[in-house]
Amino acid sequence: MANAAVDGIDTDTAEPRVLIAADKFKGTLTAVQVAERVTAGLRRVLPDLEVEALPVADGGDGTVAAAVAAGFERREVRVAGPLGEPVTAAYALRGDTAVVEMAEASGLQRLPAGVFAPLTASTYGSGELLRAALDAGARTIVFGVGGSATTDGGAGMLAALGARFLDAAGEPVGPGGGGLRDLVTADLSGLDERLTAVDLVLASDVDNPLTGPKGAPAVYGPQKGASPADVATLDAALTHFAAVLEKTAGPRAAEHALAPGAGAAGGIGYGALVLGARFRPGIEVMLDVLGFAPALEKATLVITGEGSLDEQTLHGKAPAGVAAAARAAGKEVVAVCGRLALPPKALGRAGIRRAYPLTDAEPDVARCLADPGPILERVAEGIARDFLT
């Protein structure tokens, strides 16, 4: 039986029921695998424990996998990767709602190992993914952005959806943010008409503007191999891109460049806003889509987590969103993680009662990285003993 009191609610009277709503441990365990391992560890202590697994994501890589785990159908399509080569990318569909993850087509994981293309990587394949969702009859599209290899302001995506971006000779500009330096004319008249009838939701965990010191090139360009000179080039190119679009689409194009989320995923957020998307924090959108609220209602304890619990976690990452929703419902929350870099007070402010890093069970960090699954099971045993017996 549970023995914890949560915000004045005595859970002694309820049979324990655990909701596992954790994100991936990036590079080691998927969100689905995290849930499986935590479940196994809990049931070693309480074999009959009721557990519901709801893998979550914040809009970045892993978003489609989380939707599929929640019952969406996985759809695959051949699209252009960030360097133009064909790749097989997936989106998720349930009824007339689609979940599209830009990293599936245009993410860093689509680049060859050690290869970066900060000036030329394109989001064209992300636009092809959106078009595939439209072809499948989607009327609501959750567009999760993050983990991109690109910094093209969504120009490639817009081109795949029918826009034309031309240079002084009337020829299409080159791919990537670097090609936008040569942009003279932007023609949006050919954009897919179905977009006007779709609820497009830009789901992101960052609220950066398109350009400037907090913009996409300056903040995220170096992660994609951009040198200081590349960052300056890309910032100027995206500033120019927005100025040309302002002439075509009016002052709203300039407003979009300053809007929260415009700088997400190399500026693809800006392109989505130009298409009429509405911006929402990624974890909030995904909790709605995945059916978190009804699952939360039945739970007596929520276990969330991700690979590294740190300052970034507190700014829109999945565990913070899960904890906020759970706290609002009067539920107790603990977290699992590979690495813990937050003090107890910061965790408490986020609504997390206690965090359990893998190093609690295995001090050797190398072992935690090499084979985290069995260690996570041991950590989960500790949670069961601390909170459920």
UniProtKB/TrEMBL annotation:
Keyword NADP: no
Transmembrane residue ranges: none
Keyword Transferase: yes
Family, similarity comment: Belongs to the glycerate kinase type-1 family.
Documented EC number(s): 2.7.1.31
Originating species: Streptomyces gottesmaniae
Alphabetical keyword list: Kinase, Transferase
MF terms (GO), sorted A to Z: glycerate kinase activity
Segment forming the signal sequence: none
Domain of life of the organism encoding this protein: Bacteria
PANTHER family: GLYCERATE KINASE
Protein name as it appears in the record: Glycerate kinase
